Fold:
Amino acid sequence: MKVAIRADASLQIGTGHVMRCLTLAEALRQQGDEVEFICRTHEGNLLESIHQQGFKAHELCPAGEGQANGNLKKETLYGGLWLGSTQEQDAEHCKAILEVMKPEWLIVDHYAIDQTWQILLKGSYKKLMVIDDLADRKHQCDILLDQTYGRKPADYIALVPKDCQMLLGSQYALLRPEFAQWREYSLERRANPELKKLLITMGGVDPDNVTGQVLDALKTCNLSKEIYITVVMGAMAPHIVTLKKQAETMPYKTEIMANVSNMAEIMAKTDLAIGAAGGTTWELCCLGLPALIVMVADNQRNIISLLTNLYIALTVDKENVRNGMKEIETLSKKTLLTLSKNAAKILDGRGVARVTQCMQDLN
Structure:
């Protein structure tokens, strides 16, 4: 079957939406489906990565380049301005692409799109799946996927049609197969926890340079000089050059890595991670990797509370990074083991297979 995916990446949006869609796209391709992306050419887009992975991507230019800008100030959705146009304009441009492609499935992963856009494109696809994690706007879809741990049908019951199939919870997290493959190894090596390898992963972009704050805070911590720090980020991250210079001043050996292809292996061989609350959280949980999660955006407040209350991870607000890093000084083996066991219970890393099976069943 033919599948179209509408998702964007940018310095403001980050890379997470497109990255999880690429994971789903690869799984669909492996079962014989034809997948094409529709993306706007924001600064920090991932169009090159999409092409490198062998997928066709239709490019939409940002508002102001060959199109009317529209009254974007009226957009009220969270991240509404991130679309780069009004929903009406975006739908018009997507319609021309979809009418040629004629997809059986359209997948949308975008905070700035709701039923306004979806209704305008009705008839340009057979089935619609929406990927969301905010539960703050209405959708006209056949499948609603929200991989947030603890998400309940009541959160969406008034936002989707009655016959919409809701795939809710971290058991549907769109993780690459490598995470399930490294899960057993990762869990086994945590039976006797230690703290020698530290991973910092604040997302592909990290526009506010929280990574730099973390490194500054770690300088003041009383940690073993033998600790090895690995920082992983996207090649388009705006502060990567500064961070490489900063790494040279660290009292611990610190390596900056960009666009890695073996993230699961890196995580599996790490003892503690410092990461942003987002898709990375589910990767860490799958591998039972103890973590200190930093809230870098207001829309992450609920998941931060959940992680804290269930003691799945240690958490800190980005305004309090320095004090948060001090917790690492007193981490005991018992704490590391407890965090690992609690995290590993959250998901098994096989969510993509569950999602693609649901799409097949409804097709």
Q: What stands out?
A: The chain has two domains: 2-175+349-362, 177-344. Residues 65-70 have pLDDT under 50 and may be disordered. The domain at 2-175+349-362 is CATH 3.40.50.11190 (Rossmann fold).
